[in-house]
Amino acid sequence: MEVLGLRLPLIKKGDDLPSMILKAADQIGGLRDGDIVVVTSKAVSAAQGRVRDLTGIRPSPRAKKIAARTGQPPEFVEVVLREADEVLRVNKGAILTIKDGLICANAGADLSNVPEGQAALLPAKPTRAAEEIRRRFLAKKSKVGVVISDSVVRPLRLGTVGQAIGFAGIEPVIDSRGRPDIYGKPLRMTFRAIADQLATAAQVVMGEAGERVPVAVMRDASVELVERPRRSPKISPKRCLYYGGLKL
């Protein structure tokens, strides 16, 4: 498998992101059938205008109290509280939340890679956004899969990995239960998080700082393309290994 990063200009609200990606794909000879295009959530959010000016935010008493514990700007904390579906824990430097069924820091809101005084939010309806991008590529005769990725940290691990918050054209999870291991024993619980694995591999070339590589093309990934995925990678809190121990 090859992981090919694409450099794009700065993306602004209203920009035609699929056209920008198609143009940038000239750097690698264009998109090929079977490619998986991984796009950072920041790129999609920027095109959607999902950026908040913090100067107009009036923090609530709760936001001010939490900000004193986290060391974050109160205005930013207020944005996080508005975006979060549930606050799980407050730590120095971050608020652990659930947003759209995902456990993530700060409800996905971020102060990096946006102008001073602004915060980027997660894209609206990311799976729908991924499908719209895929269909634009399909109209140009490029049969590909699309993943929208965001950074996430894992329990007891230092550093970020990728997480698929939206996807289209691929099966995001493969059920490996019943398949034999190397000793012939059937697997009992294993699901492969293919979309998340692709998102993490893409981060190797996309980076987290000023690289300006918001798109990576996964070539020869041996991932089957599908018109309509059968399974969602999201699970209920009752099935989550970590959820019970994360609540306040």
Summarize the structure.
The protein contains seven helices and twelve strands. The protein has 248 residues and is of the alpha+beta class.
Please give a handful of descriptors for the protein shown.
globular; five-stranded mixed sheet; 248 residues; 2 domains; alpha+beta; 60s Ribosomal Protein L30, Chain: A; three-stranded antiparallel sheet; CofE-like fold
Helix count from the secondary structure assignment? 7
Derived from helix and strand composition plus strand pairing, the structural class reads: alpha+beta
Overall mean confidence score, pLDDT: 91
Tell me the span between the first and last alpha carbons.
42 Å
The level-1 CATH class of the largest domain: Alpha Beta
Could you characterize what this model shows?
This protein has 248 residues and is of the alpha+beta class. It has 2 domains: 2-49 and 125-246, CofE-like (60s Ribosomal Protein L30, Chain: A, 2-Layer Sandwich); 51-121, CofE-like domain (CofE-like fold). It has 7 helices and 12 strands. A 5-stranded mixed sheet has the order 1-12-2-8-9. It is globular and about 55 Å long. The N and C termini lie far apart (42 Å). The model has no long low-confidence stretch (mean pLDDT 91).
